[in-house]
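Progress report, Aim 2. The chain analyzed during this reporting quarter is listed below.
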Amino acid sequence: MIRFLFRFIGLICLAAAFILGVYDGTKSIAANNVYLTSARTLWELINAASLAKLKPALEPYAGGVLWDPVMVSILAAPSWALLGGFGIVLLVLGRRKKPLIGYAR
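Predicted structure tokens for the chain:
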């Protein structure tokens, strides 16, 4: 059941990454310049209030190091790459195990 959930969410993330890749590509072709939608921009479009609550929640840990170099670099990454990587990780975690050959069960 949990493997099915991992595969389902992974496929949704890969589909969203593909859509965002096409969106960035068409926007770049139309403007004759490279445009990449960052994860911060996507998160602000979806729910800006939760992004504003994230910084005060993470700053007390590890002396502020968890927010500034770690989360700032994650939020600056292209959204299609972030969603695609997360989808691939979920698909690998949810894959079926290979049957053992030559072992009696």
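Residues 38-77 form one domain. The chain is about 70% helix and 0% strand. These observations will guide the mutagenesis work planned for the next reporting period.
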